[in-house]
Amino acid sequence: MLALIALPIGAIWGAFLAKKRGGNRLDMLQYAAGFAIAFFLLTVVLSIAFARYLEL
Question: What's the Rg (C-alpha) of the chain?
């Protein structure tokens, strides 16, 4: 569930960062996609690790 929340947060942050650095629309799209994927994967890994930790 948290991973689905991380997708738009990562996309928004990536697009904002690209715009802040003076990028055009394609740069914003690339940053948004990269950050969304990174946030999604990080959240999935942390969720799995946390779930396994609680079961011990």
Answer: 14
How far is it, in rounded angstroms, from Cα 20 to Cα 6?
Answer: 21
Q: Per 3-state DSSP, what percentage of the chain is helix, strand, and coil (rounded to 5)? A: 90, 0, 10
- pTM of the predicted model over 0.70: yes
C-alpha–C-alpha distance, residues 23 and 11, integer Å: 15
Residue pLDDT tens, the chain, 56 long: 888 999 999 999 999 999 999 999 999 999 999 999 999 999 999 999 999 999 86
Q: What angle do CA 9, 42, 30 make, to 5 degrees?
A: 55
